[in-house]
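Deliverable D5.2: sample structural annotation.
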Amino acid sequence: MSGLALPIFLAIAAGVSIVVQQVLNSNLRASLNSAAWSGFVSYLVGVACMALLALALRDPLPSAATAARIPWWAWSGGLFGAIFIGLSILLVPQLGAATFLALLVTGQMLASVAFDHFGWLGLAQRPIDATRLIGVALLIAGVVLIRR
């Protein structure tokens, strides 16, 4: 377990950062009076941070040949990120951070169980079993309790 302490801590920190991001983006939306511009600013700052990280890690720029070999759907992650950011900017003020994130995690769990089961987008197949179904059911029960 000690070898997993840092990864577990970092995963929890990532979860905290999602809450902070959503609340900050919602506040920015109220200040700018625009969900679209709030999302744009969020992505602009994110792009700048990732560029700095690539420079700090001295990652080489991928070649055009490498980029050409990547399947078309692999480039669509930003689209789904924009959907997430846009919906969170609109929904966090309506639902509250706890309910929004509980529903978000529920959606993530339902999708991840399906993606694992069918091996979609190149994942190794991991069949749905009773334990996973119980976990998803408990998560949905948690959403109901948080929303009350």
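Annotation notes: The CA atoms of residues 11 and 17 lie 10 Å apart. The helical segments are 5-32, 35-57, 64-69, 77-95, 97-118, 130-147.
The annotation will be released with the project's public dataset once the embargo ends.
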